[in-house]
Inverse folding.
């Protein structure tokens, strides 16, 4: 029999500590929409998305009501458009982005991911078309998210693509400067991108996936923080146990919602992504977890260790709670989306270099960081290369989502609104890496990739 | 199927009676009920059987929220599985 204390604990997590299911993301394969005529391709894409996802939002809302836990986002990921649209005879995929935008709005989801290309070893003609379409596509659409995978531990890094993406990020910033360069918040550059990630902006539906799947991303930094408040001054063993137990409980909620959503939508369950995703709300912050662990601010010495503990124990606790764990699974450290990170960055406690160190042990990478608008494309590429190298050598996913804010400099702030939050412009090392980036070509796969 | 109902708010005459009348009208059987009053605040929990209920779960949730608002208390009904999932291995 369910006890009063269990009911109270669960409802306190939901009502007081922001426990939620962050996203139900439906992955949809678009490869069967292939057509040499781009108009017909767009028609098929629209039809497929609006058919597969017609009940997604209703089911998400019904589940939230039935179980009394918020299901914050309902989203869609699709096959990388550079693959799905490769048969089209065209020189631009901007019309495809419009189709994705229309389809997403028609079914009521708030983001659709998959305006993507996987170019870790080289670009096809279609990859080039997609990458060149990104700035215009992100300018002209509202809910389309784009990602480009430029490297893997198995293949090394495509440095031509790294160079190109520095330029594309700047062009996207320029084209969306009226909205504080918001386009860049919808663009991620990955190394070791995962095919079943339900979180935006980097979600896409991998080519090894079923036709349609349901992936669920859980969250709950506030709940972890609360659990750590109860073990203040205890040793690390106790701290780790507290994180594990909490992660287990959070993930079980995600598993329940995923299974129910899968049943009601008649779509197979893919994975649970065990991530701690912060929001700009006070109390829903990864940085506040660090403070609870004993650091004055995020960025203080000890932060990387604290993040490593958090990431590892979230996984250890969550893995047993779900039958299929996947996606990015760990702790996200976006700056603008995390109140504690914003404060630490404003005070100067948290720097870009410290964030880079933290990405060695977090689940993704340099995320939602506003930098000066006069940062050069080569510097952006240099940052991407550094981050990708961390991912390649350490067999982990790393990503870069930087926002060069045109017309703003260190000391200014930028407001994205909603869950994307706001951020101070952080300083970037201004020494040049232009000659390094200009070399082009590929960085060969690391020695430890030869495992076969 | 079972539901868990929680009622939270300032105590006054008729809260439990109103909730029970609503449940009975909708063929919902009460399996367990417990309550505490701290200061003048009521904290009640019920486990109810929904196996013969005709209305959709989400409709019941909405109606109970409204019922609570009319009495100045917060009434929440949740499917038991969220608690089973979280607290049972």
């Amino acid at each position: 029999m369910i006890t009063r204390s269990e009911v109270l604990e669960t409802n306190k997590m939901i009502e007081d500590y922001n426990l939620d299911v962050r996203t139900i993301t439906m992955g949809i394969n678009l490869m069967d929409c292939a057509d040499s005529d781009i108009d017909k391709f767009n028609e098929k894409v629209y039809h497929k998305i609006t058919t597969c996802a017609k009940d997604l939002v209703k089911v998400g809302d019904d589940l939230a009501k039935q179980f009394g836990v918020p299901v914050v986002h309902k989203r869609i990921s699709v096959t990388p458009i550079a693959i799905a649209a490769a048969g089209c005879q065209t020189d631009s995929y901007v019309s495809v982005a419009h189709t994705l935008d229309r389809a997403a709005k028609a079914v009521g989801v708030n983001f659709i991911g998959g305006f993507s290309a996987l170019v870790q070893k080289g670009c096809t003609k279609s990859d080039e078309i997609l990458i060149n379409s990104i700035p215009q596509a992100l300018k002209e659409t509202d809910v389309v998210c784009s990602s480009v995978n430029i490297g893997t531990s198995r293949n090394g890094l495509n440095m031509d693509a790294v160079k190109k993406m520095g330029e594309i990020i700047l062009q996207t910033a320029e084209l969306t400067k009226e909205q504080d360069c918001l386009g860049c918040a919808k663009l991620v550059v990955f190394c070791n991108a995962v095919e079943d990630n339900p979180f935006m902006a980097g979600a896409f539906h991998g080519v090894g996936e079923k036709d349609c799947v349901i992936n669920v991303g859980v969250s709950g930094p506030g709940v972890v923080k609360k659990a750590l408040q109860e073990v203040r001054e205890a040793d690390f063993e106790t701290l780790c146990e507290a994180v594990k137990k909490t992660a287990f409980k959070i993930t079980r909620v995600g598993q329940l919602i995923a299974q129910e959503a899968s049943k009601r939508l008649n779509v197979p369950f893919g994975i649970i992504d065990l991530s701690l995703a912060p929001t700009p709300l006070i109390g829903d912050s990864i940085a506040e977890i660090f403070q609870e662990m004993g650091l004055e601010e995020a960025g203080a010495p000890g932060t990387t260790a604290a993040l490593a503990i958090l990431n590892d124990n979230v996984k250890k606790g969550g893995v047993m709670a779900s039958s299929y764990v996947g996606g990015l699974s760990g702790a996200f450290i976006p700056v603008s989306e995390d109140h504690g990170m914003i404060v630490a960055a404003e005070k100067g406690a948290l720097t870009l270099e410290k964030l880079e160190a933290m990405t060695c042990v977090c689940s993704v990478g340099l995320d939602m960081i506003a930098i000066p608008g006069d940062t050069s494309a080569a510097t952006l590429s240099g940052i991407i290369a550094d981050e990708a190298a961390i991912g390649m050598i350490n067999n982990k996913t790393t990503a870069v989502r930087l926002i060069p804010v045109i017309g703003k400099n260190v000391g200014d702030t930028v407001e994205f609104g909603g869950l994307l939050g706001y951020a101070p412009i952080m300083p970037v090392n201004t020494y040049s890496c232009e000659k390094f980036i200009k070399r082009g070509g590929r960085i060969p796969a690391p020695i430890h990739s030869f495992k076969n | 199927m079972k539901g868990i109902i929680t009622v939270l708010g300032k105590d006054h005459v008729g809260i439990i009676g109103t909730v029970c009348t609503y449940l009975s009208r909708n063929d919902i059987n009460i399996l367990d009920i417990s309550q505490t009053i701290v200061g003048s605040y009521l904290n009640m929990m019920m486990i109810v059987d929904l196996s013969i209920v005709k209305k959709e779960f989400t409709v019941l949730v909405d109606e109970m929220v409204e019922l609570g608002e009319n009495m100045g208390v917060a009434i929440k009904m949740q499917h038991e599985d969220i608690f089973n999932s979280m607290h049972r291995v």
Q: What stands out?
A: The longest strand of chain A covers residues 144-152. Chain A has a mean pLDDT of 95. Chain A touches chain B through 19 residues (CB under 8 Å). The CA atoms of residues 27 and 213 of chain A lie 5 Å apart.
